[in-house]
Write a structure and sequence with these properties.
heterodimer; A: 323 residues; mainly alpha; ABC transporter involved in vitamin B12 uptake, BtuC; two-stranded antiparallel sheet; 2 strands; B: mainly alpha; two-stranded antiparallel ribbon
């Protein structure tokens, strides 16, 4: 402990393992928020249930591996399908509603998933959580580590393999999303965002396109859920609180609406700032520092919304203002 | 009602007429449904248990209703879906904790302090945030995210100052009151009496006073109210005072019944939203009734399933209402 109230902690600042972990969690949030981007930024639907998609994806994967004996590789696509079906189930009745009702409906559905994970102990382990669903990942992780060693990184950080896989997936997702958003399909999404009635008048089934957009978000949410499960090597309902979705919105808004690359930038900045509080030895308790971080996130959200609602890389003309 | 429906009644099957009647009188249908649920429960679980849990439910439901009426008026008048409303309840509970436990003053003083300071909190953010944002014609997403930011600031601000431990108010948790063979804790009885009394006062005030009528007029149609000469800026401030004071009271009552922790309000936000939506967004009387009904339904559910699932009733009602009747049981069909 430093005696100065505001000393900078250089040990943390130069700790490579620490930064690898930050980069990993930032990548996971980027994946999570890419789903919000296609909904909010490109389709104009205010999805507040992304944490529910991540939770359902992660739990479905883990339960299929642990209870049904599926292989890791089969469990993941099955979990994605389950998450998409859940998204359709929620979206079908609630996408007809106004934006604020849809926001409430989606946050309630995400909380319903979390409540189920917390209370259906026999299936989900309740608050004790689930472990040992990631044996296959350990094998992959070890082989990536040995490749890294052969490339000259003598003692790779334990999160390095996950960091690499997460960011490769994020880059692939960004490239793929950019491609489909520029396609005729993506143009219809943006037409719906700008003027749903006009798009419908041109014969486009707006509800169907919105459901497709929600399915893409559910897929990306489920994948980020897998990564989160591997990151913690442990699944617990607390990892999927509504706060996670709110942080995802922080990433989305900071990076900028209707910009996929903004998401990557936003995720890196937010997690550097959040974890960066560790460089500074403040004369505060652990709980106070945790509270302070979220006060900063809250103030940041308020100021961004007040003064630069389109975010850093977003375009004002692509901002959904709603009515 | 449109002119066309006057003559369209001929040549319809009784079933179609019934369907139409049901969608025209949703409150009656809801009341009927509630009666059926109550009867079924009485038959299977016995009158005593149903009445006992119902009484607990009313005690909680009065506080949900107090929270919901403020949230619904703020929505109706300001078109603001305030995700920070739950944290207003928490703020009130912590003010009461400070006054009642740290300063060792009586609960009545704590309740008054909580109401006054939470009311002021509402006005402070109106002046700092919501007023300026309305002037700039901010969109739905902007307002929702700002209220989420505010919720984070209030909750974590409380946690920063007061810590994240669970605390209790200085109330009597051992004595019981017996009434008609039903047993209820003295604190719960107190919360029930205070809650219902204030709800009645709020209902009368909204129904008969000029301020109440103006608030409802603004909530119903802001532009029309403005054109008819109502000073909307003043009513907006009163609405925040009103919503804040009721939220503060609800926070203290809920804190007295169970305990006080930083997540107190946020955990109940969806139940309060459920009451708002069930009552019809913007409808103050609807929110009052729906809050009480939800409180009772949630407690009744413990007769059938483990009490750890009881909060799920709030979600189920919320999702069902949004799917079946998003305008709520008292709302008329408008675009939602």
């Amino acid at each position: 402990m430093s005696s100065l109230p505001l000393a900078i902690n250089f040990e943390v600042l130069t700790d490579l393992d620490f930064w690898v972990a930050v980069a990993t969690i930032a990548g996971i949030y980027a994946m999570f928020s890419l789903g919000l981007q296609i909904n909010v930024g490109f389709t104009g639907i205010v999805n507040f249930g992304q944490a529910g998609f991540a939770a359902l994806g992660a739990y479905a994967m883990a339960i299929l591996v642990l209870e049904a004996g599926f292989s890791f590789w089969l469990a993941m696509p099955c979990a994605i399908v389950i998450t998409i079906l859940f998204g359709l189930l929620i979206g079908l009745p609630s996408l007809r509603l106004r934006a604020d009702y849809f926001a409430i409906a989606t946050i309630a559905s995400a909380e319903a998933v979390r409540l189920f994970a917390q209370n259906a102990d026999s299936l989900t382990g309740g608050n004790q959580g689930l472990r040992n669903f990631d044996d296959t990942w350990f094998e992959i992780s070890e082989s990536i580590e040995s490749v890294l060693q052969s490339l000259g990184w003598s003692d790779p950080s334990s999160f390095a393999p996950l960091m690499i896989v997460v960011w490769v997936a994020v880059v692939l997702a960004m490239v793929g999303l950019t491609y489909i958003t520029k396609s005729p399909w993506g143009r219809v999404l943006r037409a719906i965002r700008e003027d749903e009635d006009a798009a419908s008048a041109l014969g486009k089934n707006a509800l169907s396109y919105k459901l497709q957009s929600l399915s893409v978000a559910a897929t990306l949410g489920a994948i980020s859920g897998f990564f989160l499960a591997l990151y913690f090597a442990f699944l617990n309902p607390q990892e999927f609180r509504p706060l996670i979705t709110f942080l995802g919105y922080g990433v989305l808004i900071l990076g900028g609406l209707a910009s996929y690359y903004g998401i990557a930038l936003g995720a890196i900045i937010i997690w550097t700032l959040l974890e960066g509080t560790r460089f500074i030895d403040l004369p505060l308790s652990e709980a106070q520092i945790a509270a302070l971080r979220f006060i900063i996130v809250g103030v940041g959200l308020i100021l961004l919304m007040a003064f630069r609602p389109q975010g850093m890389l977003g375009k004002k003309e692509e901002m959904v203002l709603g009515d | 009602m449109e002119a066309g429906t006057l003559t369209a009644d001929e040549g319809r099957t009784p079933y179609e007429r019934l369907r139409e009647g049901m969608s025209e009188r949703p409150a009656a249908v809801a009341l009927g449904l509630l009666a059926v649920i109550a009867l079924a429960l009485i038959v299977s679980e016995g009158l005593h248990d149903v009445a006992q849990t119902g009484l607990f439910g009313l005690s909680n439901g009065a506080s949900y209703a107090l929270g919901a009426v403020g949230l619904t008026l703020v929505y109706g008048i300001l078109k603001l879906t305030n995700f920070a409303h739950g944290d207003f309840l928490t703020f009130g509970a912590y003010i009461a904790l400070l006054v009642n436990v740290t300063w060792e003053l009586p609960l009545a003083v704590a309740i008054l302090a909580a109401m006054v300071l939470t009311a002021l909190l509402g006005v402070v953010f109106e002046v700092l945030m919501w007023g300026p944002m309305r002037a700039r014609k901010a969109g739905v997403l902007q307002l929702i995210l700002m209220s989420i930011g505010l919720a984070l600031v209030i909750r974590n601000g409380i946690q920063f100052v007061a810590g994240s431990e669970v605390s209790v108010l200085d109330v009597d948790v051992t004595s019981n009151v017996e009434l008609l063979g039903l047993r209820i804790g003295e604190t719960e009885a107190l919360a029930l009496v205070i809650g219902v009394t204030v709800l009645l006062a709020v209902g009368l005030m909204l129904r008969y006073t000029l301020l109440g009528k103006r608030m409802r007029a603004l909530s119903d149609n802001l532009d029309l109210a403005e054109t008819s000469g109502i000073d909307t800026d003043r009513i907006v401030l009163y609405t925040w005072l009103f919503a804040g004071a009721l939220a503060g009271l609800a926070g203290v009552l809920l804190g007295a019944i169970s305990n006080v922790k930083p997540e107190l309000g946020f955990e109940l936000l969806l139940v309060i939203f459920a009451a708002v939506v069930l009552g019809g967004i913007g409808d103050a009387f609807g929110a009052l009734a729906a809050g009480l009904v939800l409180g009772v339904l949630i407690e009744w559910s413990t007769l059938l399933v483990d009490s750890k699932w009881k909060i799920a009733i709030g979600f189920i009602v919320l999702i069902l209402v949004l799917i079946i009747r998003p305008q709520g049981i008292f709302g008329r069909a408008r675009t939602v």
